[in-house]
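#structure-requests
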Amino acid sequence: MLQATDLTLHYGSSQILHGVSLSAHIGEVTCIMGSNGVGKTSLLKILSGTHPSSGGSYALDDRDVTGLRADQLAHAGVGYVPQGRFIFPMLTVRENLETGFGCLAADQKFIPGEIYDLFPVLKTMLDRRGGDLSGGQQQQLAIARALITKPRLLLLDEPTEGIQPNIISQIGEVISYLRGQKAMAIVLVEQYFDFAFGLADQIFAMTRGEIVYESRTATIDKARLRQSVGV
């Protein structure tokens, strides 16, 4: 589904990513781990189209999408849940969900019942403003909004950050369910080691803008991974 090759990224004169390559497959969770400041979020910004790469290439289903804007990638099937959630605080929960309609054909512009099955709390809060929700509820809303777009590639940036344990567990169950549906590839950026390790089919560890370790979870050296990611 996803093949990124030798991605580089600069912010001004500072180089953030140094030739990052990775792949992600339908029906799998690919986890990117590493401590703060190693380039994980920057990588997702490239993959979501919210920041252009300086070099390298990026393909979805063998289609070169290098350099496409965020709206073009969203129409191509990329769903993005950024770190910090970025829901619209003055819009209602319903209106936040409906912002995902922009990627859909006219006959698909409705909120599927599956969204409420995955996130029951949202159904009870449809008329509440997004800014009035707790952090955990906002995270569920952000994920649900991305799912409205019917993505083939779902990018999740630190979905457990600042979230209470029971919501973390619910989010883990949702990710497991989505993987089992085998309709999308999931790329998860995460520092919570046990959460990531329990979900991932393959893991990439980053340090200073580079991939320093990668492995399928079934054959992973857990001690080496912990050492590589420093978490």
